[in-house]
Here is the input.
Amino acid sequence: SPAYPERCWFFAFISLVIFTVINISSLDMKNIKYKKIFCILTCVLIFNTFGEYGLAYNNIIESRVQLDEQITEIKKQIANGKKNIVVHSVIDHSGRYNAFTENGYLTSSKSSWFNKWMAKYYNVDSIVAVD
Here is the structure.
């Protein structure tokens, strides 16, 4: 595929970190110049990582909370005997690392493949999401 979501870069990034650490360990760390460069580079990368992963973490947690609310609402309506379920849609999270970026989920159309799959999974006639 010519394109893929950026969250797929995780393992490539980890491999790059391992490669970099191996190369840095071969440097002469007795030299004060290398120690300063290493400390500055490490600090910059740590602050950047915390910033990026903090935003991604919050975005993913928000999506998870909304999905849990949808599932709770579906189960509540099923317990009340409804066969045509209506839930609130998930707010669009277009973060680079969010699992819902460029993926489908419940829509307002009963004929959507995911809506049909969810209805079959929960053994109801239909499930739709409204804003």
Observations:
- DSSP finds three helices and two strands in the chain.
